[in-house]
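Lecture 7 notes: from sequence to structure.
We start with the chain below.
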Amino acid sequence: MALKVKAKEQKIMVGKYANTFRYVMIPELYAPLSQDKVIREAALRSGVSRGVMQACWDAAGEVIRAWATEGHSVALPGLGTMRFGLRAASVDNVNDVKASLIKSRRIIFTPDTDLKHELSVTAVQITCIDRDGKEVKRVTSADDGNVEDDESDNNGGNNNGGGGDNNGGGDNNGGDNNGGNNGGGTDDGEPLS
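Predicted C-alpha cells for the same chain:
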C-alpha cells in the first residue's frame, strides 16, 4: 500500500518564493471510514461480537472525552496520546490575566513513535499536475524515510497546503501549534505570562 500525493503547480503568494509557480505537494485523502465499518473490522480481527465491540468503542470514547476535557493526557493504544491545549494572548501584568485571553481551546494529538516510523517508511505515489490541471508526471517510490526537513529555510512555514504548521507540539489535525508541548502559549509561541 502507498500513500497518494498530488504535486500541483501553484503560484506562491508569500515567502521567499513569492510570485513564482512551484509544485506544492498535498496528500490525497481517501474516503473517510464510517464508525460502523471500523467496528465491524475490529470485531472481526479480535474475534469478539460486533455488539461487544460497539459497547467497548462507545465506552472508550466516553472515557477519552471525559478525561481529555478534565486536562489529562490520554493514551490511545498503538496510536499516541491526545491532550487539551489552548492558544492565548500573553500579558505583562498578573492583574491582567483572565479567561478572556484564551483565544481557542483544542485537542492536540501526538503520534506514537512506532506509528510515526511506520508512516515514514510507507511508499509514496506522487501525481504531478501543472497549473492548467493536466497530469504531467507520476512518481512512485519506496520512501526510505531520509527526507530532509527544510522548515528552517522557510521560517517554519508550511507551503504544502495539507495540514498546518506544527512548530513545537503534536499534530492537531490541521491547525497551528506554535505553543509548544505544554499546551499553553500565545500566537507567537511565547508562554502565557
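Points to note: The first helix runs from residue 35 to 46. Residues 147-193 have pLDDT under 50 and may be disordered.
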